[in-house]
Amino acid sequence: MRGNVRAERLLAIADDELILGWRDSEWTGIAPTLEEDVAFSSIAQNEIGHARALYELAAAELGTDVDALAFDRQPDEYRCAPLVELHLLDWAHTIARRYLYEEADRVRLAALMACDDAELAGLAAKIDREETYHRLHAELWAARLRDEPRFRAAVEELWPYALGVVEPDQRAELARRVGLRVESTQTVQRGQHTPELAELWNEMTEVRRSAPGATW
Amino acid sequence: MTVFEVFRQEKKGQAFQHAGSVVAPDAAFADAWAREQYGRRGESEALWLVPRESIHQVTEWADEFDLKYRRVDGYSIKERLRIARERAGRASAGDR
Fold first, then answer.
1. Which residues fall within 8 angstroms of residue A174, CB to CB, at 6 or more apart?
2. CA A198, CA A22: separation in Å to the nearest integer?
């Protein structure tokens, strides 16, 4: 698997979407209002759908399949950014992550849509169309909570993690979009993992590991 | 929070029908949430979101003199229909 630059790039994004989709789905049934519960769960499902599409491209590249990539790797083989791994237990942090991730994803997708890899650029455009709604949702919350100290504090706390979602040359654009500064902090880089990822992985892969090789 | 009543149009040209409601802090949130609850499976052509307080409701009905003849259930239409059909049947059979 090592050395395949295209696959590594695809896996980084796919892992972000899968792990964030998983984390966001943890709010299903307990989000602040019924309406938000439905919306948030739906967005989580969309992100997992994006992960699936990206894993399909990576699987073709690596001669494996989507489920193997999603579930059969060890936690330290995942390429996701630490931002998506964090187990956030309050709404201010959760919505701050959603907002920061959407802004980071917007910058990343814009670059992918313009890249020379036609297959990836096409998929990025398809994903981007669905992200329009995610952005609408994130922007609504960010605008509403802008002056709430708890939300501001959560955004600032997660900012070093958000920087780690995008490539170094995309960070200035991300900072401009969210009104923060790249130099104000030390980026939490992709490639390292929080202990929370191993916990999530344990739960996420439990059923798959319980019956290796089973056809579902 | 405001209750927005949601009306859903299934196909272009069809009448909007009441689908349910969403409780939201403002119209923008109502828009975002109603899309998810009433449109994410492609089941709606369009939605109308109406703040519940904008709806003028009518519940009082005066019928002090019990004017049954103004209601359709005042007529026994079934029997009249049976007789009319029989007559029509005989007439058409005779025409042939």
1. A103, A104, A107, A162, A163, A166
2. 13
pLDDT value at residue A201: 98
User: Cα A176 vs. chain centroid, distance in angstroms?
Assistant: 20
The confidence score (pLDDT) of residue A2 equals 47
**Spatial separation of the C-alpha atoms in residues A145 and A153, rounded to whole Å:** 11
The vertex-B26 CA angle with B20 and B27, nearest 5°, equals 65
Indicate the residue of B22, B28, B40 with minimum beta-carbon distance to A140. B28
State whether B36 and A144 contact (CB < 8 Å): no
A37 part of contact set with chain B, CB < 8 Å: no
Distance CA(A101)–CA(A97), nearest Å, equals 6
Q: Under a CB-based contact definition with an 8 Å cutoff, are residues A159 and A100 in contact? A: yes
Q: Tell me, what's the pLDDT at B86?
A: 92
Smallest CA–CA distance, residue A65 to chain B, in Å, is 28
> Within 10 A of B49 (CB to CB), how many other CB atoms are there?
18
The answer to whether A170 and A109 are in contact (CB under 8 A) is: no
Give yes or no for residue A71 having a pLDDT over 50: yes
B-chain residue closest to A37, CA distance: B33
- Partner B contacted by A38 (CB < 8 A): yes
- Residue B74's pLDDT is 62
Average of pLDDT values for A171-196? 95
Identify whether the C-beta of residue A204 lies closer than 8 Å to the C-beta of residue A22: yes
How many pairs of residues across A and B have Cβ atoms under 8 Å apart? 28
Tokens at residue A117, please?
Answer: 């890899």
CA atoms of B56 and B24, how far apart (whole Å): 20
